[in-house]
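Model: You mentioned two targets. I'll fold them one after the other.
Researcher: Yes, keep them separate.
Model: Target one:
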Amino acid sequence: LDASYLNGDYSAANQEIVAEQYVASRYGSWEAAKAFWEANGWY
């Protein structure tokens, strides 16, 4: 993800929160994100 998603907070906790939000909004779940990656070779 681009650093702009982190709003200047590069802490591990914020990176986790932002990753969760991104995956939920783009794929719906981590399982769906993994399935997309396996089918397409990229995310």
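Model: Target two:
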Amino acid sequence: MGVHHLLRHKEPVLLFIACAAVGAVSYITVYYIPIYFQFTQGDDAIHSAVRLLPFIFLLITTIPASGAAMSRLGYYKPWYLAGSIIALIPAILMGSLPSFQPRSSPPHTSAKTIYGLEILLGLGAGAYTQDSFAVIQAVIPPPEASNGLTLMLLAQLSGMTLGLSLSGAIFVNRV
């Protein structure tokens, strides 16, 4: 039957958008932070990957914590709102840093600043990265659970793909 019939309802559509957006946030960060440190600090692959650990650590610790808190409290919308706000602010700040601008002078943004923004991004994205897979099962009829999970997987993969494609186009055309 497919998943298109789920898109006639508000909740699955909003979950699709949120899941796609957080997929884009997560994978743009994972892809471009190491590249940033390789280009601006001369790091090798291992050192630039180590510099991604603040984001990864907060992401993987916030995911189960938010899932546990969400199931205990019974509300999911506040997690999406708070996570989106917490992730949006450092994403905007990171994009407006002088060393992320095209043809800027040598980088003068400290690694501590980048680490702080990574921590906030991990906290915000972790607040709702995997929650869509549980929430979709609660907002649709039980026989539709497999279609709902398929829709969320499609959203996450589409967000990653579209996010990396758009950010790559911006990166290439601004540098």
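Researcher: Noted. Anything on target two?
Model: The mean pLDDT is 90.
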